[in-house]
Task: structure prediction
Amino acid sequence: MSDRPTRTTVEAIIRPDAPAEPAPSRLRRRWFAVAVGALGGALALGVLVGPASLSAWGVVTEMISTLPGVDMGPGLTDRQADILWKIRMPRVVLGALVGGMLAISGAAYQGVFRNPLADPYLLGVAAGAGLGATLAIAYGPDSSAWPVDALPMFAFVGAFVGVTAAWILGHASGSQRNAATLILAGVAVAAFLTALQTYVQQREAETLRQVYSWILGRLATSGWHEVLLILPYVVVSTVAILLHRRLLDVLAVGDDEADTLGVRTERVRLVVVAAATLGTAAAVAVSGLIGFVGIIVPHAVRLVAGTSYRIVLPLSLLGGAAFLVTADVVARTISSPAELPIGVITAFLGAPFFAVVLHTSRKLAR
Amino acid sequence: MTVLRVDDATVRFGDFCAVDSLSLEVAGGEWLGLIGPNGAGKSTLLRAVVGLVDHDGSITVDGTPHQDLSRRDLARAVALVPQVPECPPDMRVADYLLLGRSPYISYLGTERRHDLDVVAGVSDQLELGDFLGRALGTLSGGELQRVVLGRALAQEAPVLLLDEPTSALDVGHQQQVLELVESLRHDRSLTVVAAMHDLTLAGQFADRLLLMSNGRSVVTGTAAEVLTEHTISEHYGASVRVLRDDDGGVVVIPTRSHAGTRAERGATSRPG
Result:
């Protein structure tokens, strides 16, 4: 050890790959560019595709004209402008928010539980929201006269009750340090709440169709209302999760070793789960239970861009948004004018998409 | 000067007493070898010192009692290389080494230039430069052990705890890792406490041995004082011969049972 032939440079720590191999940092930048491009493409597709045709040039002109001090003349007729601003845009933006939120929450859950099968619905969010929504549909007051819709509120509260119950149950069992206990508590709470939900649903059979359609998920919008409703939650949750990206990497070596590295794993888990749950509950409240996004997108990201949460979290956010906006375009065009539940599309597109990613990443693997 | 002091420490798991009223002192720069049969409480003692299990009694690091140290302070004072480290197979060596800087990075902060410099220094000292871009899953056992040691060194803690650091390695790599620890101890003025299975190696590398059995400290002293045929037979239930070499070193050789010569055993142990 006395003679030191090499001096390791700081550069080598940040970009520790031999020049002959593709530098991961370059690779990462490339994947960021791909994700941003995919999101841009999905948003454009979402805005342009629909029963009423809008020209791309018209949309661009219309959007630029909204900038202060720029007037390129109206690109679209008044009716077209209404379709753009009151129907297409809110829906596309909502899809991006919900998709990004579900994907980054899923990635965060997989990190704190070190469980590849974790998804944002793991701890009873789905069952709680489902019960809340079913109660709102079956017994809720006629909210057409209300300023706000009762269903999202009920679903949001239900989701939070579900996760809080799972957390309390998981910690009441004593073994605080075991993340698996928390997952089991989530399973128990979810089973209980689903039983209640099914009971209510069977008693009020005429609500069955409505409940079912909610459970499969949909991105129905009435103007910008839903977007404004969830935007604050999505922003706060996303920022909180992204700030924990380094700590999620430390958790990868397990609770014990993370503890000996000075990290308070319990606190990290609590904060990240709370943030992910808040965002997921908001997303579920306006879109129902859209499955697969929270599992497929983060894993696809890992397969192509590596497992560090510093990359997985932001790329999942972008990728989830792009994926859900695209899925929504398919859901509303494939059997137009009828609309398929978007949950069906995410599963239908997601499974083969994942198979392709799995296949290509095997080929790329050194 | 005493760097690590354990005073009357007891660790209980329910009714089971894993460490029983154990006291020890380790001087700065000393290498203490913890020996004892499986289940003697060596790992639990090390885990208590890094705060992973609760204990009664007192543990003092560099003059500061445990309860006055935050998790982060403790991680800056004591680094542990666990017996079976968790090594995410896809994590790259450079990222793994950087984890060792966690105690110095604020909760939501990220690595600074100094952290990268420290890791670069560790990489030089352990000659890890060629591995930095490799995934942990692609390393051999010996390489991995060096990387895990590197992460502990990146903590820049004056006390280094090793839990069976060489149990997965062949005889050559065992020696290499222990030689490495020895040279690091001198270069970095580390205090080393290592739980060790191989009694001969423990005697060769540690300044002092402490034999644990059933959670208690049985005997402590130099290798020549602790490693006797009687003590090893009593606490390990093993039959060994202890040879002393010319330099005062001790070699512990397992012998096959008390049955006598091979010919006699062959005659008496017919299957039936």
Observations:
- The two ends of chain A are 31 Å apart (CA to CA).
- Chain A touches chain B at residues 1, 4-10, 12-14, 16-18, 21, 24, 243-244, 246-247, 249-250, 252-254, 256-264, 302, 306-308 (CB under 8 Å).
- The CA atoms of residues 127 and 191 of chain A lie 8 Å apart.
- The first helix of chain A runs from residue 10 to 14.
